[in-house]
Amino acid sequence: MEITRFAPSPTGHLHIGGARTALFSYLFAKANKGKFLLRFEDTDQERSKEEYVDSILNSLDWMKIKLDSEPIYQSRNIARHKELAIELYKKGFAYACDCSEETLTKMREEQIAKKQKPKYNGLNRNKNIEFAEGMVLRFKFPLEGESKFKDLILGDITINNKEFDDFIILRSDGSPTYNFSAAVDDMDMMITTVIRGDDHITNTLKQINVLDALGSKIPSYAHLPMVLAESGKRLSKRDGAEDILDYKKKGYLSDALINYLVRLGWSYGEEEIFSLEKLKKIFDLSDVNSSPSKYSQDLLNWYNNKYLNFLSAEELSIKVKENSGIDFSEIDNGNLAISLLAKGANSINQIAEESIYFFEEPQIKFNALNIDTNKKLLFSEFSKQLNEIDFEKSKIEKYIKEFLQANNLKFPELGKPLRVILTGKENAPSISELLFILGKETSLKRIEYTLDD
Ligand code: GLU
Question: Looking at ligand 1, which residue's alpha carbon is closest to its atom 6?
Answer without folding.
Answer: 7
